[in-house]
Amino acid sequence: MAEFTMELNDEQKEVRDWLHGFAADVIRPAAAEWDEREETPWPVIQEAAKVGIYSLDFYAQQYFDPTGLGIPMAMEELFWGDAGIALSIVGTGLAAVGVLANGTEEQIGTWIPQMYGDASDVKVAAFCSSEPDAGSDVASMRTRAVYDEAKDEWVINGTKTWATNGGIANVHVVVAVVDSELGSKGHASFIVPAGTPGLAQGQKFKKHGIRASHTAEVILDNVRVPGSCLLGGKEKLDERLARAREKAKQGGERVKNAAMATFEASRPAVGAMAVGTARAAYEVALDYAKTREQFGRPIIDNQGVAFQLADMRTSIDAARLLVWRASWMAVNGKPFTAAEGSMSKLFASETAKQVTGQAIQILGGNGYTREYPVERMHRDAAIYTIFEGTSEIQRLVIARTLAGTPIR
Ligand SMILES: Cc1cc2nc3c(=O)[nH]c(=O)nc-3n(C[C@H](O)[C@H](O)[C@H](O)COP(=O)(O)OP(=O)(O)OC[C@H]3O[C@@H](n4cnc5c(N)ncnc54)[C@H](O)[C@@H]3O)c2cc1C
């Protein structure tokens, strides 16, 4: 097990500087344009693919860094550049992780390359779990997948919502109910390739922030996929369902805890995105406070402004430490006995909202306009307390973990 460290090693610093260069030179200059256009920034994704930032290999390398700092460092730098564009670059990863976690070697080898495409023809992927009536309450999902044994096909019906890259993806990973008695343990994931009859994009959402990232409904109307598109395969699914039925009879405690561990491990990455946005806004505010003069002196000479910056920096550093700790725990298999993954996401996302708001205040009227980036960063920051589990759900998980009560 790697020791917890608060210092990046030389190799990590090199990667960080390289990512920072890409974020500063390619992402940040394009941010305002794609925010206004509210479209997927394909040329930027293509640039990322050319240099190796848009590929599973790159993220896998960061993920398997035993210090646990690879992923948070990468997320912080890319989201420092711009949250909407960065989500367009890393959003495919959500679907890729779905396949890596549940798929067979053959499925991984077949579908992951099709999710990314290549630098001359980049593709994206979507992970479709949320539904109009199943957001925080994932267990109330309605999308059904029914097995047609005669044809060895699955027939999927339902409506997914809020899917990042939904409808424009080359590969959709769709979570559906296969046994409605088992709650979230009766769910399975399916690959739905682009162009499958019955798969369609519904409404594309016009959003408050991260507007360069495409978010849409996905309609599944009698979608038929071959048996080979069930992630993990039928035999493994049948075994898993039998085990879940058995455990449900015994009270289901261990089942719930296993599901929780998965979320705990992925939440620090979202926390790191929030740290990136918060740091970006703080840096703009600090520069501004040093150069903007009122009453014959820089505004940072007023304690009322300087103290805000002190609080902003303190919260950002605290958030990063919580994220790094949780990420180190996840990679090294340490049990999340106090829901440390949720803690890191909760604190970092609330920090991003707070800090970007303070940055607007420090820039005064300029902060409120699109001439300066903090207005966009504040809009972007609001997503972190909503997706991948809202702040209320993080509190619920932390509280129930401390109380020792089951987490549904
Ligand atoms: C831009 C964007 C991108 C997204 N990308 C994806 C994606 O790629 N794939 C995907 O599957 N999903 C995605 N989501 C969905 C996201 O994960 C959900 O929006 C989120 O889980 C919340 O669900 P909901 O919106 O239905 O809110 P609800 O669950 O309806 O919650 C509404 C409010 O009630 C509160 N609440 C709910 N239950 C409780 C409770 N028990 N105790 C206290 N408070 C509670 C919530 O905290 C929230 O404040 C995305 C969402 C957005 C906005």
Automatic annotation (TrEMBL):
Its cofactor is FAD. One of its GO terms (molecular function) is flavin adenine dinucleotide binding. Keywords: FAD, Flavoprotein, Oxidoreductase. Gene3D superfamilies: Acyl-CoA dehydrogenase/oxidase, N-terminal domain, Butyryl-CoA Dehydrogenase, subunit A, domain 2, Butyryl-CoA Dehydrogenase, subunit A, domain 3. Residues 258-402 form the Acyl-CoA dehydrogenase/oxidase C-terminal domain. It comes from the Bacteria. It holds the Pfam family Acyl-CoA_dh_M. Residues 126-223 form the Acyl-CoA oxidase/dehydrogenase middle domain. Residues 9-115 form the Acyl-CoA dehydrogenase/oxidase N-terminal domain. Belongs to the acyl-CoA dehydrogenase family. This is Acyl-CoA dehydrogenase. It comes from Streptomyces violarus.
